[in-house]
Amino acid sequence: MDELVVGTYEGYLLGYSLYTEDGINKLKQTFATHSHTASVRCISVAGKFLASGGTDDKVIVLDLKTRIEHTILMNHDGTINTVAFTHGGTHLLTGSDDGSIIVTRTGNWQMEKLWKKAHGGQPVTHIAIHPSDKLALSIGGDKTLRTWNLVKGRPAFTINLGSKGIVLPTEIKFSPGGDRFSLISLQNVDVWTISKAGLEKRLTCNSKPSTVQWLTDDKLFVGLENGNLVSLTMSNTQAQTYHLHKQRVKCLHYENDKLYSASSAGELKVWSVSDEKLEEIFHINASCRVTCITLNRQSHLIKKEPEVEGKESEEETLKATEQNSDSEASDVEGPKKVKSLKRKPGAYVTISYEDKDEDKPPSKNPKRKKRNKIPKNKKAVE
Description:
It is a single chain. The protein is mainly beta. It has one helix and 28 strands. The strands form seven sheets. Strands 3-2-1-28 form a four-stranded antiparallel β-sheet, with no helix packed on it. Residues about 305-315 and about 325-360 have low confidence and may be disordered.
């Protein structure tokens, strides 16, 4: 069972789990937190940690095991536009409107690297990390694409996107294999190849693209502002169009042959992907304006809350049975066997007696004869 985590304009983080009951697929809300004081812009998951950035200049790290805040990073002086964990979960990369990119180690949550003017002092829009965790790509307000060497911790090279005809890039994503990456700008979706170090294909949409989700190294989905979804294959020039939502497709996520989509109106849908077909499994309205989604793939972290509720209910039933047994023992005459609970360490038992002398236990003789014992190792002297 996977858990879908959603960030909203209202500053909430919402969790939903997909389960089956009586042959019917349902979405159940697992948690809701209001850690941010402003809208949430981006989220990322690695292991048991969930990092979210917002317009309140904060990066909040949530522990998915306990569902409480683990730490708060206040290293940026502007809106957090992008957060990205490395695939190994060892580091967290964050980009902000202040123009800086910060690399934070997840063990002690200390700043390990700071690129103060990563894009010439312009805002950092988006960061994508290669599946090998050896390099990262970033785009910013200076209309450049920068490559960062994560092994040596320094910039590698810069590409001027303006010379390639790309204006105002908004999103960049790697394919699962890492040889290709997509770049969104205005009405176009450009696919670049790292091995060829250049533009491979350009897709011009009839509506403005909002997000891209790779399925394989050869196939990707593009969400549009008119609510449609475009399926594009690199080996095929034709693209297929599906109608997903009535309003803009805000974000997409694909995992385990399921496509998770969210519209700007707060509508969440789960689709089953098979060959060239999309079949809707379930939909729900989050009653919030969704900004970003991701997936928590560790099921043992989702079942934490029901276990805690069960323990509390067991403690309540034990207390109730203890009270009932005490009341019944006072009403009924004669001794009655009551199942005793386990005594806590350090506890003691007090016994009270009535004033009658008959009921008091016989007093013990405090005087005892002392016997002179001879040690075994020593012999008695005559």
